[in-house]
Design goal:
By secondary structure, the chain is mostly helical. The chain contains seven helices and no strands. Helix 1 (about 15-25) crosses helix 3. The chain starts with 13 loop residues before the first helix and ends in a 13-residue tail after the last helix. About 5% of the residues are buried.
Protein backbone atom coordinates (compact mmCIF):
# COMPACT_ATOMS: atom_id res chain seq x y z
CA UNK A 1 0.00 0.00 0.00
CA UNK A 2 1.26 3.42 -0.87
CA UNK A 3 2.18 5.38 2.23
CA UNK A 4 1.13 9.00 2.26
CA UNK A 5 3.16 11.43 4.26
CA UNK A 6 1.36 14.41 5.76
CA UNK A 7 3.04 17.64 6.69
CA UNK A 8 1.83 20.52 8.78
CA UNK A 9 2.56 24.20 8.79
CA UNK A 10 3.18 23.84 12.53
CA UNK A 11 6.15 21.54 12.03
CA UNK A 12 4.52 18.17 12.80
CA UNK A 13 5.62 15.55 10.23
CA UNK A 14 4.44 12.01 9.49
CA UNK A 15 7.73 10.62 10.76
CA UNK A 16 7.24 12.42 14.06
CA UNK A 17 3.75 11.00 14.45
CA UNK A 18 4.86 7.47 13.45
CA UNK A 19 7.77 7.58 15.91
CA UNK A 20 5.48 8.74 18.69
CA UNK A 21 2.93 6.02 17.90
CA UNK A 22 5.64 3.33 17.81
CA UNK A 23 6.92 4.53 21.16
CA UNK A 24 3.43 4.41 22.68
CA UNK A 25 2.83 0.94 21.23
CA UNK A 26 6.07 -0.43 22.68
CA UNK A 27 5.02 1.02 26.06
CA UNK A 28 1.80 -1.01 25.84
CA UNK A 29 -0.37 2.04 25.26
CA UNK A 30 -2.83 2.28 22.40
CA UNK A 31 -2.00 5.36 20.34
CA UNK A 32 -4.82 7.85 20.09
CA UNK A 33 -5.07 11.35 18.78
CA UNK A 34 -4.78 12.92 22.25
CA UNK A 35 -2.02 10.54 23.49
CA UNK A 36 0.02 11.09 20.34
CA UNK A 37 -0.35 14.86 20.72
CA UNK A 38 0.75 14.62 24.35
CA UNK A 39 3.71 12.42 23.36
CA UNK A 40 4.79 14.94 20.71
CA UNK A 41 4.10 17.93 22.89
CA UNK A 42 2.71 19.90 19.98
CA UNK A 43 0.33 19.70 17.07
CA UNK A 44 -3.43 19.94 16.78
CA UNK A 45 -5.94 17.05 16.55
CA UNK A 46 -6.85 18.05 12.99
CA UNK A 47 -3.20 17.77 11.97
CA UNK A 48 -2.33 14.60 13.87
CA UNK A 49 -5.56 12.71 12.98
CA UNK A 50 -4.77 11.91 9.30
CA UNK A 51 -1.15 11.02 10.13
CA UNK A 52 -2.37 8.67 12.87
CA UNK A 53 -4.72 6.97 10.40
CA UNK A 54 -1.81 6.47 7.99
CA UNK A 55 0.26 4.88 10.80
CA UNK A 56 -2.57 2.49 11.65
CA UNK A 57 -2.93 1.42 8.00
CA UNK A 58 0.81 0.79 7.76
CA UNK A 59 0.75 -1.20 11.00
CA UNK A 60 -2.17 -3.35 9.86
CA UNK A 61 -0.43 -4.10 6.57
CA UNK A 62 2.77 -5.15 8.38
CA UNK A 63 1.04 -7.29 11.02
CA UNK A 64 -1.20 -9.26 8.67
CA UNK A 65 1.21 -9.60 5.78
CA UNK A 66 -1.43 -8.25 3.41
CA UNK A 67 -1.37 -5.21 1.32
CA UNK A 68 -0.26 -4.14 -2.10
CA UNK A 69 2.97 -5.34 -3.64
CA UNK A 70 4.27 -1.80 -3.39
CA UNK A 71 5.14 -2.35 0.30
CA UNK A 72 8.47 -3.79 -0.78
CA UNK A 73 8.99 -0.72 -2.91
CA UNK A 74 7.92 1.59 -0.09
CA UNK A 75 10.32 0.09 2.44
CA UNK A 76 13.06 -0.68 -0.07
CA UNK A 77 13.77 -4.21 1.26
CA UNK A 78 13.50 -7.59 -0.48
CA UNK A 79 10.65 -9.95 0.43
CA UNK A 80 12.77 -12.37 2.64
CA UNK A 81 13.95 -9.41 4.70
CA UNK A 82 10.42 -8.17 4.96
CA UNK A 83 9.27 -11.64 6.10
CA UNK A 84 11.97 -11.69 8.76
CA UNK A 85 11.04 -8.20 9.85
CA UNK A 86 7.37 -9.19 9.91
CA UNK A 87 8.09 -12.25 12.07
CA UNK A 88 10.25 -10.10 14.33
CA UNK A 89 7.52 -7.50 14.50
CA UNK A 90 4.85 -10.11 15.32
CA UNK A 91 7.12 -11.59 18.01
CA UNK A 92 7.61 -8.13 19.50
CA UNK A 93 3.89 -7.55 19.21
CA UNK A 94 3.07 -10.79 21.09
CA UNK A 95 5.68 -9.91 23.71
CA UNK A 96 4.22 -6.44 24.12
CA UNK A 97 0.73 -7.95 24.31
CA UNK A 98 1.85 -10.29 27.14
CA UNK A 99 3.44 -7.32 28.92
CA UNK A 100 0.27 -5.35 28.33
CA UNK A 101 -1.86 -8.20 29.73
CA UNK A 102 0.30 -8.38 32.86
CA UNK A 103 0.05 -4.61 33.18
CA UNK A 104 -3.70 -4.75 32.63
CA UNK A 105 -4.07 -7.42 35.33
CA UNK A 106 -1.92 -5.36 37.68
CA UNK A 107 -3.96 -2.30 36.90
CA UNK A 108 -7.17 -4.31 37.38
CA UNK A 109 -6.02 -5.52 40.82
CA UNK A 110 -4.91 -2.01 41.74
CA UNK A 111 -8.23 -0.69 40.47
CA UNK A 112 -10.14 -3.19 42.62
CA UNK A 113 -8.03 -2.27 45.64
CA UNK A 114 -8.58 1.42 44.95
CA UNK A 115 -12.31 0.79 44.52
CA UNK A 116 -12.46 -1.08 47.86
CA UNK A 117 -10.45 1.66 49.54
CA UNK A 118 -12.73 4.26 47.98
CA UNK A 119 -15.82 2.41 49.22
CA UNK A 120 -14.32 2.18 52.71
CA UNK A 121 -13.49 5.89 52.54
CA UNK A 122 -17.04 6.65 51.41
CA UNK A 123 -18.47 4.58 54.30
CA UNK A 124 -16.16 6.29 56.79
CA UNK A 125 -17.04 9.64 55.27
CA UNK A 126 -20.75 8.82 55.56
CA UNK A 127 -20.31 7.85 59.21
CA UNK A 128 -18.34 11.03 59.82
CA UNK A 129 -20.98 13.07 58.05
CA UNK A 130 -23.76 11.49 60.13
CA UNK A 131 -21.72 12.04 63.29
CA UNK A 132 -21.08 15.64 62.33
CA UNK A 133 -24.76 16.12 61.53
CA UNK A 134 -25.73 14.64 64.92
CA UNK A 135 -23.11 16.82 66.64
CA UNK A 136 -24.38 19.84 64.77
CA UNK A 137 -28.00 19.08 65.74
CA UNK A 138 -26.91 18.58 69.36
CA UNK A 139 -24.93 21.81 69.28
CA UNK A 140 -27.86 23.69 67.76
CA UNK A 141 -30.17 22.27 70.44
CA UNK A 142 -27.63 23.20 73.14
CA UNK A 143 -27.30 26.65 71.60
CA UNK A 144 -31.08 27.12 71.58
CA UNK A 145 -31.30 25.94 75.20
CA UNK A 146 -28.42 28.21 76.14
CA UNK A 147 -30.05 31.17 74.45
CA UNK A 148 -33.34 30.45 76.21
CA UNK A 149 -31.48 30.22 79.55
CA UNK A 150 -29.67 33.47 78.76
CA UNK A 151 -32.97 35.17 77.90
CA UNK A 152 -34.53 33.86 81.13
CA UNK A 153 -31.49 35.02 83.10
CA UNK A 154 -31.73 38.45 81.49
CA UNK A 155 -35.44 38.66 82.33
CA UNK A 156 -34.69 37.54 85.89
CA UNK A 157 -31.95 40.15 86.10
CA UNK A 158 -34.41 42.83 84.97
CA UNK A 159 -36.94 41.59 87.55
CA UNK A 160 -34.27 41.62 90.25
CA UNK A 161 -33.29 45.14 89.23
CA UNK A 162 -36.95 46.17 89.59
CA UNK A 163 -37.21 44.45 92.96
CA UNK A 164 -33.98 46.07 94.05
CA UNK A 165 -35.25 49.49 93.02
CA UNK A 166 -38.53 48.86 94.88
CA UNK A 167 -36.66 47.63 97.97
CA UNK A 168 -34.33 50.62 97.77
CA UNK A 169 -37.37 52.90 97.70
CA UNK A 170 -38.89 51.03 100.66
CA UNK A 171 -35.59 51.27 102.49
CA UNK A 172 -35.43 55.01 101.87
CA UNK A 173 -39.02 55.37 103.07
CA UNK A 174 -38.26 53.24 106.15
CA UNK A 175 -35.18 55.33 106.90
CA UNK A 176 -37.22 58.52 106.53
CA UNK A 177 -39.91 57.05 108.80
CA UNK A 178 -37.19 55.99 111.23
CA UNK A 179 -35.78 59.51 111.29
CA UNK A 180 -39.26 60.98 111.78
CA UNK A 181 -40.02 58.47 114.55
CA UNK A 182 -36.68 59.21 116.20
CA UNK A 183 -37.42 62.93 116.10
CA UNK A 184 -40.91 62.34 117.48
CA UNK A 185 -39.52 60.12 120.23
CA UNK A 186 -36.88 62.71 121.08
CA UNK A 187 -39.61 65.36 121.22
CA UNK A 188 -41.77 63.12 123.41
CA UNK A 189 -38.81 62.38 125.64
CA UNK A 190 -38.01 66.06 125.99
CA UNK A 191 -41.67 66.79 126.65
CA UNK A 192 -41.84 63.99 129.22
CA UNK A 193 -38.66 65.21 130.88
CA UNK A 194 -40.09 68.76 130.92
CA UNK A 195 -43.39 67.50 132.36
CA UNK A 196 -41.53 65.46 134.96
CA UNK A 197 -39.43 68.47 135.90
CA UNK A 198 -42.56 70.67 136.07
CA UNK A 199 -44.34 68.06 138.22
CA UNK A 200 -41.30 67.83 140.44
CA UNK A 201 -41.11 71.60 140.79
CA UNK A 202 -44.86 71.85 141.40
CA UNK A 203 -44.69 69.06 143.97
CA UNK A 204 -41.73 70.66 145.63
CA UNK A 205 -43.49 74.03 145.79
CA UNK A 206 -46.68 72.47 147.09
CA UNK A 207 -44.68 70.48 149.61
CA UNK A 208 -42.89 73.60 150.72
CA UNK A 209 -46.20 75.52 151.00
CA UNK A 210 -47.75 72.59 152.85
CA UNK A 211 -44.80 72.36 155.22
CA UNK A 212 -44.91 76.11 155.86
CA UNK A 213 -48.67 76.05 156.37
CA UNK A 214 -48.35 73.03 158.64
CA UNK A 215 -45.65 74.75 160.64
CA UNK A 216 -47.85 77.81 161.00
CA UNK A 217 -50.79 75.70 162.02
CA UNK A 218 -48.69 73.78 164.50
CA UNK A 219 -47.41 77.03 165.91
CA UNK A 220 -50.92 78.38 166.17
CA UNK A 221 -52.09 75.15 167.78
CA UNK A 222 -49.23 75.28 170.27
CA UNK A 223 -49.95 78.95 171.00
CA UNK A 224 -53.64 78.18 171.35
CA UNK A 225 -52.92 75.33 173.67
CA UNK A 226 -50.55 77.50 175.69
CA UNK A 227 -53.15 80.24 175.87
CA UNK A 228 -55.75 77.67 176.79
CA UNK A 229 -53.58 76.40 179.62
CA UNK A 230 -52.91 79.94 180.83
CA UNK A 231 -56.50 81.06 180.48
CA UNK A 232 -58.65 78.09 181.29
CA UNK A 233 -60.81 80.35 183.27
CA UNK A 234 -61.63 82.53 180.32
CA UNK A 235 -64.69 80.58 179.83
CA UNK A 236 -66.24 77.82 177.89
CA UNK A 237 -66.86 80.11 174.98
CA UNK A 238 -63.17 80.78 174.47
CA UNK A 239 -62.45 77.10 174.93
CA UNK A 240 -64.98 76.17 172.31
CA UNK A 241 -63.50 78.75 169.95
CA UNK A 242 -60.08 77.37 170.42
CA UNK A 243 -61.33 73.83 169.95
CA UNK A 244 -62.97 74.96 166.72
CA UNK A 245 -59.70 76.54 165.64
CA UNK A 246 -57.88 73.29 166.42
CA UNK A 247 -60.47 71.35 164.52
CA UNK A 248 -60.06 73.64 161.49
CA UNK A 249 -56.30 73.26 161.77
CA UNK A 250 -56.68 69.48 161.78
CA UNK A 251 -58.94 69.63 158.78
CA UNK A 252 -56.45 71.89 157.01
CA UNK A 253 -53.67 69.39 157.82
CA UNK A 254 -55.78 66.57 156.44
CA UNK A 255 -56.48 68.60 153.29
CA UNK A 256 -52.78 69.31 152.88
CA UNK A 257 -52.06 65.61 153.31
CA UNK A 258 -54.64 64.79 150.65
CA UNK A 259 -53.10 67.40 148.35
CA UNK A 260 -49.69 65.86 148.94
CA UNK A 261 -51.06 62.40 148.16
CA UNK A 262 -52.67 63.70 144.94
CA UNK A 263 -49.42 65.33 143.89
CA UNK A 264 -47.52 62.11 144.57
CA UNK A 265 -50.10 60.21 142.52
CA UNK A 266 -49.69 62.68 139.63
CA UNK A 267 -45.92 62.32 139.85
CA UNK A 268 -46.23 58.53 139.73
CA UNK A 269 -48.60 58.80 136.74
CA UNK A 270 -46.10 61.06 134.97
CA UNK A 271 -43.32 58.58 135.71
CA UNK A 272 -45.45 55.78 134.27
CA UNK A 273 -46.16 57.84 131.14
CA UNK A 274 -42.46 58.61 130.82
CA UNK A 275 -41.58 54.93 131.27
CA UNK A 276 -44.19 53.96 128.66
CA UNK A 277 -42.79 56.55 126.27
CA UNK A 278 -39.28 55.26 126.87
CA UNK A 279 -40.46 51.66 126.29
CA UNK A 280 -42.18 52.68 123.08
CA UNK A 281 -38.99 54.46 122.05
CA UNK A 282 -36.89 51.34 122.74
CA UNK A 283 -39.39 49.13 120.87
CA UNK A 284 -39.43 51.49 117.90
CA UNK A 285 -35.65 51.67 117.86
CA UNK A 286 -35.40 47.84 117.99
CA UNK A 287 -37.92 47.51 115.15
CA UNK A 288 -36.05 50.06 113.08
CA UNK A 289 -32.73 48.32 113.77
CA UNK A 290 -34.28 44.96 112.77
CA UNK A 291 -35.70 46.55 109.61
CA UNK A 292 -32.30 48.04 108.81
CA UNK A 293 -30.66 44.64 109.32
CA UNK A 294 -33.23 42.97 107.03
CA UNK A 295 -32.66 45.65 104.40
CA UNK A 296 -28.90 45.11 104.67
CA UNK A 297 -29.31 41.33 104.35
CA UNK A 298 -31.61 41.80 101.37
CA UNK A 299 -29.10 44.15 99.71
CA UNK A 300 -26.38 41.55 100.28
CA UNK A 301 -28.56 38.78 98.85
CA UNK A 302 -29.41 40.93 95.84
CA UNK A 303 -25.73 41.70 95.32
CA UNK A 304 -24.87 37.98 95.50
CA UNK A 305 -27.67 37.07 93.09
CA UNK A 306 -26.55 39.82 90.73
CA UNK A 307 -22.98 38.48 90.85
CA UNK A 308 -24.21 34.93 90.15
CA UNK A 309 -26.37 36.15 87.27
CA UNK A 310 -23.49 38.15 85.81
CA UNK A 311 -21.23 35.06 85.99
CA UNK A 312 -23.96 32.88 84.43
CA UNK A 313 -24.52 35.47 81.71
CA UNK A 314 -20.78 35.62 80.92
CA UNK A 315 -20.57 31.79 80.84
CA UNK A 316 -23.54 31.53 78.49
CA UNK A 317 -22.11 34.22 76.20
CA UNK A 318 -18.79 32.34 76.02
CA UNK A 319 -20.62 29.07 75.25
CA UNK A 320 -22.65 30.77 72.48
CA UNK A 321 -19.51 32.35 71.03
CA UNK A 322 -17.69 28.97 71.08
CA UNK A 323 -20.62 27.24 69.38
CA UNK A 324 -20.97 29.95 66.73
CA UNK A 325 -17.21 29.97 66.03
CA UNK A 326 -16.97 26.15 65.62
CA UNK A 327 -16.29 25.27 61.92
CA UNK A 328 -19.13 23.67 60.01
CA UNK A 329 -18.86 20.19 58.49
CA UNK A 330 -17.18 20.15 55.08
CA UNK A 331 -19.33 19.13 52.14
CA UNK A 332 -19.11 15.51 51.22
CA UNK A 333 -17.94 16.30 47.73
CA UNK A 334 -14.88 18.12 49.11
CA UNK A 335 -14.10 15.47 51.71
CA UNK A 336 -14.06 12.56 49.30
CA UNK A 337 -10.78 11.50 47.72
CA UNK A 338 -10.56 12.26 44.04
CA UNK A 339 -11.15 9.14 42.04
CA UNK A 340 -8.25 8.08 39.86
CA UNK A 341 -9.49 6.66 36.62
CA UNK A 342 -7.12 4.08 35.21
CA UNK A 343 -7.93 2.99 31.68
CA UNK A 344 -5.81 0.13 30.37
CA UNK A 345 -4.59 0.49 26.81
CA UNK A 346 -6.65 -1.36 24.25
CA UNK A 347 -4.72 -3.13 21.62
CA UNK A 348 -6.13 -3.79 18.23
Amino acid sequence: MEQRTFSSSRGVQQDDVSEACDSLWLEGIRPTNERTRQKLGRGSPNTIGPMLDAWWKQKMALSTGTGPASVEQILGFPAPVLDSMRELWQSALRHSERIAEVGIETVRVQLQEDRAALQASELALGERERSLEASRASMEETLATTREALTAAQRQTVDLEGQRSALTGQLDEARAALGLSARRIDAMRLESEANSAAHARSLKEQQERHDAHERRQLLEIDRAREEARLATAAGAKELARRQSVELQASEAALAAQATKTSLEREIATGALVTARHLSELATTRAALEAMTARMTDRDSALAREETVHEATKALLERAIAAVEQRPQAEPVINAAKPRRRLVPPALS
